[in-house]
Amino acid sequence: MTLAAPTHERGITTLTLDSPANRNALSARLVGELSAALAACAADDTVRAVVLTHTGNTFCAGADLTAPPDPAAFVALMRQIVALPKPVVARVTGHVRAGGLGLLGACDISAAGPGATFALTESRLGLAPAVISLPLLPRTDPRAAARYYLTGERFDASEAARISLVTLAADDDVDEALAPVLDGLRRASPQGLRASKELVTATVLESFDQHAENLIARSAALFASAEAREGMTAFLERRDPAWVW
Fold first, then answer.
1. Per-residue model confidence as pLDDT tens digits over 152-172
2. What is residue 68's predicted lDDT score, i.e. its pLDDT?
3. Which domain of life is it from (predicted)?
4. Report field, pTM of the whole predicted structure over 0.90
5. Other beta carbons less than 10 A from residue 146's beta carbon
6. What integer is the mean pLDDT of 169-185?
7. CA angle 205, 55, 137 (to 5 degrees)
8. In this model, does residue 1 exceed pLDDT 80?
């Protein structure tokens, strides 16, 4: 299973990434299932908002290197989250890596627990955070983005909140931290939520419309390169790539 059956409570539908064996990595199958589930939420008048969460200790480990999605399909999924006429809230209690940060960045609101960690590891694989830049760069502190894009360093939930990667970092219980957020969404009208979301996502959607095609091509070229093949092989073999000093 890659996506658990949706649950619904008082207007909030929860979608749960449920492939702990590969750390909820973004496979072609997972991207397709999540896109279909989001489309169903968009068409359902009983859904006021969507919560995106996970099983296991990892929210999303990035692309599944054994069965990766087409870059265009992943871009379409991120844009779908941004353009969905209902708020999408990320609930994170575990680790987020590489492409998983793009999924997180596309969400409207996000809460991370004390056990959450984050890293943009693409540069260490001979890649770059190309397509995930579409939702991340308009929303994240630019100096922090430069640091973490280049170094691949790991950082915690407090730092993620400081740089605006997530909305809030929970000191203890992430569900307790999210309770007032979800209460606020339940009190808002469907029209009010839709119109308000259009205002706060306009710049992000412009990023997709202006740069998606170029970044998809750039991502494909990087994945096809000799350095990326070495980086991904080294990752799967649990060794340092050839360029590490």
1. 999 999 999 999 999 999 999
2. 85
3. Bacteria
4. yes
5. 10
6. 97
7. 25
8. no
Tokens of 109: 């609101």
Distance between CA atoms of 114 and 30, rounded to whole angstroms? 26
What is the distance between the alpha carbons of residues 35 and 53, in angstroms, rounded to a whole number?
A: 15
Strands 7-9 and 12-17: antiparallel
Full DSSP string of the chain: --BPPPEEETTEEEEEE--GGGTT-B-HHHHHHHHHHHHHHHH-TT-SEEEEEESTTEEE-SB-TTSPPPHHHHHHHHHHHHH-SS-EEEEE-SEEETHHHHHHHHSSEEEE-TT-EEE--GGGGT----TTHHHHTTTS-HHHHHHHHHH---EEHHHHHHTTSSSEE-SS-HHHHHHHHHHHHHHS-HHHHHHHHHHHHHHHHHHHHHHHHHHHHHHHHHHTSHHHHHHHHHHHTTS--TT--
d(CA 10, CA 88): 15
**Is the Cβ–Cβ distance between 148 and 154 less than 8 Å?**
no
- Supply the angle between the helices 28-43 and 71-83 in degrees, to the nearest 10: 20
Asked if residues 92 and 115 have their Cβ atoms less than 8 Å apart, the reply is no
C-alpha distances (whole Å) from 106 to each of 11, 66, 90, 171, 200 are 21, 24, 9, 23, 12
Separation of alpha carbons 234 and 227, rounded Å: 10
